[in-house]
């Protein structure tokens, strides 16, 4: 009796202890989580390649007298031509700006040939590296430079564009979190059909997100891990998406165990024992895939790896500790009105996944070939992807800085309106200036600040910004200037494109190898992991292809973010393998229990299909939230990942992986012991049983 009483006390105490520990952890993390926004940086150097010319230019400019310069262009425009009054207004406003702020030189107006536009390039070292001070400067210039009676005034240039981008990223935190939580809540209500149950995993995911913010801040302070608006947003998406996936799997198994085990504590222990290894393996695979981004040269991609990993691991810890504790404390009543009674059996009915599995099992080679042809055809859409995204096309709406850039492009088609910055050694500045002026495609060049052994030279090209002509001029300058660095906004876009191409060649093989090795260890096979990896690569190509079919014609996007290919690959491979692990792990379990290969494959699909489908819908919906954001690169990334997850969930896992497993039979486990193990019996095609929880 004493042992029974001790066991009962443990059952009552353990959940309360876990809950208490979580309260303590969140209390400790709270001061750090609230500071994450303070270390978030969205400057050019936070997104640029670590070793690129343009990055060196940006960092050296920070060390020049006055520090980093905020460059702007004030654009005055009247459709029918500027009047004398317009020019007087412009001169008065620019004089006021120069009087109220410390500028790096006297602003000079440059009129357009058609007389409709007058631009004043202005720059100030007043803000330095302080982003809030930069934004205050830009907004103050906008308050001063205003038009009336048909005169339009826009403030553009790199500084204004950075302010507009920062405003967008700063506005993402609240809407992104609330929209994600609302989408997950709606799907959980539909999946669980309970007025209470959906609140538990959603609340736990919220606590995991708060913890991840504290951990991310700690990483930044301890190791200097970069935190950008993009990476922190993706971290939130991963916490809610991956965390809800793990919750769906655990709750499904817990409900199953409650039917055969009387006490909720014991049922939860059995559920954790049953699905815990698969959840640990899947989260480990996602984390390993994301950490491969540390091999990227692009600062934004490299910073996203640790933050994404933090999000996944915080979600994992919360769903395997806090969620079970709360569910045990609430007992069976949390499932109301569909309470799983002890000793009851679910109503038997033929599930959707039984039917899908049966069709794949009858003609596996036909299904496999048809699916491969479909994915291949969709992948051809990548040929229709628009070119690289330009700065002015990176917003879904048109902020002030973009309006200024568009006006400049129309009014000054014969010359550049965005400076190219050259940083030359101080002792060779005159030689560098002469070489620059003699370079084909250069309109003008003048010296700027000097300090710390370097001289700043501002160059204007004869070609418009980010055109083929300006690109050729930048490349010519880099070829002819020895020991100097060539940067500026247009050079940054070139470096982003080149570095993303380099990162794909480096990171993609590392991700594939890492994921493959984890799968080999987990599944004790070589063939099964190769099938899963090939499947997720095919899904990535098809999802990008669908993006190519809709980005330009349907969404009206003028370009594709250079990092879309790499980031979508890492996320789709890491997250897609997640579901493959759930399916293959159950298939292997059935095989070890003696089932024939076809029966094992179809039973695995029947028993895990509902949970995988539910998880896939939730994950796709969370990434689809990004399509409501006002940045084109976020919309593109969210769309491709959401489409890829849906393809993976409803086509690849249900049909192609199952068909390949049925067709290969025991060879799917080669060279593991299961490939040589004789069958102990079991029907070739399993009888229909109840549909798994999660789709009921």
Highlighted features:
disordered C terminus, alpha+beta, four-stranded antiparallel β-sheet, 696 residues, 7% strand, 21 helices, 63% helix, single chain
Name the strands of the widest sheet in spatial order: 2-3-1-4
Oligomer: single chain
Mean pLDDT: 84
Radius of gyration: 29 Å
Task: Please provide the count of β strands.
Answer: 8
End-to-end CA span:
41 Å
Shape label: elongated
Q: Characterize the main sheet.
A: 4 strands, antiparallel
In the predicted model, the low-confidence regions spanning at least 5 consecutive residues are 679-696
Portion of residues in beta strands equals 5-15%
**Succession of helices and strands:** HHHEHEEHEHHHHHHHHHEHEEHEHHHHH
**Helix content class:** 55-70%
Number of helices: 21
Description:
With 696 residues, this protein is α+β, with helices and mostly antiparallel strands. It has 21 helices and 8 strands. The protein has helices at residues 2-33, 36-39, 53-63, 84-100, 131-144, 157-170, 173-192, 199-223, 229-258, 264-291, 299-330, 352-362, 364-379, 400-411, 429-437, 468-480, 489-523, 527-550, 564-592, 597-624, 632-664; strands spanning 70-77, 110-111, 117-124, 152-156, 420-425, 442-451, 454-461, 485-487. The strands form 2 sheets. The chain has a 4-stranded antiparallel β-sheet. A hairpin with a 5-residue loop joins β2 and β3. The longest helix is centred in the C-terminal third of the chain and has 35 residues, at 489-523. The chain is elongated. The model is unreliable at 679-696 (pLDDT under 50).
């Amino acid at each position: 009796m004493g042992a029974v009483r001790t066991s009962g006390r443990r059952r009552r105490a353990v959940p309360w202890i876990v809950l208490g520990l979580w309260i303590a952890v969140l209390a400790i993390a709270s001061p750090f989580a609230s500071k994450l926004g303070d270390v978030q940086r969205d400057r050019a150097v936070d997104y640029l390649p670590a070793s690129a010319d343009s990055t060196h230019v940006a960092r050296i400019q920070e060390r020049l007298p006055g520090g980093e310069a905020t460059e702007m262009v004030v654009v005055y425009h009247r459709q029918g031509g500027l009047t004398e009054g317009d020019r007087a207004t412009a001169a008065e406003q620019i004089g006021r700006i120069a009087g109220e702020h410390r500028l790096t030189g006297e602003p000079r107006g440059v009129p357009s040939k058609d007389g409709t536009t007058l631009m004043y390039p202005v720059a100030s070292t007043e803000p330095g590296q302080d982003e809030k001070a930069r934004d205050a400067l830009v907004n103050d210039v906008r308050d001063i430079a205003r038009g009336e009676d048909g005169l339009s005034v826009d403030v553009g240039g790199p500084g204004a564009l950075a302010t507009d981008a920062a405003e967008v990223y700063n506005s993402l935190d609240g809407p992104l979190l609330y929209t994600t939580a609302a989408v997950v809540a709606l799907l959980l209500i539909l999946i669980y059909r309970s007025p209470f149950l959906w609140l538990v995993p959603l609340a736990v995911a919220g606590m995991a997100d708060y913890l991840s913010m504290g951990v991310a801040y700690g990483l930044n302070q301890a190791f200097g891990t970069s935190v950008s608006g993009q990476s922190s947003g993706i971290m939130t998406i991963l916490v809610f998406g991956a965390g809800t996936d793990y919750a769906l799997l655990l709750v499904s198994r817990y409900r199953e165990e409650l039917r055969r085990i009387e006490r909720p504590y014991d049922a939860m222990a059995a559920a954790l024992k049953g699905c815990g290894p698969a959840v640990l393996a899947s989260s480990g695979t996602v984390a390993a895939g994301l950490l491969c981004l540390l091999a990227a040269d692009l600062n934004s991609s490299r910073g996203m790896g640790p933050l994404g990993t933090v999000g996944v691991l915080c979600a994992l810890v919360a769903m395997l500790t806090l969620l079970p504790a709360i569910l045990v404390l609430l007992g069976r009543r949390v499932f109301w009105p569909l309470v799983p009674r002890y000793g009851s059996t679910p109503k038997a009915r033929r599930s959707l996944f039984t039917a899908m599995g049966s069709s794949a099992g009858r003609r596996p080679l036909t299904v496999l070939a048809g699916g491969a042809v479909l994915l291949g055809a969709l992948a051809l859409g990548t040929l229709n992807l628009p070119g690289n995204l330009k700065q002015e096309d990176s917003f879904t709406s048109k902020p002030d800085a973009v309006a200024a850039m568009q006006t400049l492009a129309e009014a000054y088609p014969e010359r550049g309106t965005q400076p190219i910055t050259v940083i030359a050694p101080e002792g060779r500045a005159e030689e560098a200036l002469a070489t620059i002026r003699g370079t084909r495609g250069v309109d003008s060049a003048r010296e700027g600040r000097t300090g710390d052994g370097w001289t700043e030279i501002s160059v204007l090209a004869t070609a418009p910004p980010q055109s083929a002509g300006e690109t050729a001029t930048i490349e010519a300058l880099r070829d002819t200037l020895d020991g100097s660095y060539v940067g500026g906004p247009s050079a940054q876009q070139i470096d982003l494109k080149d570095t993303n191409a380099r990162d794909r060649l480096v990171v993609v093989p590392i991700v594939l190898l890492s994921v493959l090795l984890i799968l080999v260890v987990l599944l004790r096979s070589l063939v099964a992991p190769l099938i899963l990896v090939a499947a997720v690569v095919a899904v990535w190509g098809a999802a990008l292809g669908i993006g190519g079919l809709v980005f330009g014609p349907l969404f009206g996007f003028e370009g594709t973010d250079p990092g879309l290919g790499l980031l979508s690959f890492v996320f789709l491979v890491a997250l897609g393998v997640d579901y493959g692990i759930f399916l293959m792990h159950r298939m292997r379990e059935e095989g070890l229990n003696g089932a024939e290969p076809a029966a094992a494959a179809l039973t695995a699909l029947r028993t895990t299909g509902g949970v995988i489908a539910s998880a896939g819908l939730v994950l796709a919906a969370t990434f689809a939230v990004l399509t409501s954001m006002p940045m084109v690169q976020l919309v593109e990334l969210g769309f491709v990942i959401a489409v890829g997850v849906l393809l993976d969930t409803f086509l690849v896992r249900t049909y192609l992986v199952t068909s390949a497993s049925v067709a290969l039979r025991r060879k799917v486990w080669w060279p593991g012991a299961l490939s040589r193990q004789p069958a102990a019996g079991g029907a070739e095609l399993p009888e229909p049983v109840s549909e798994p929880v999660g789709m009921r």
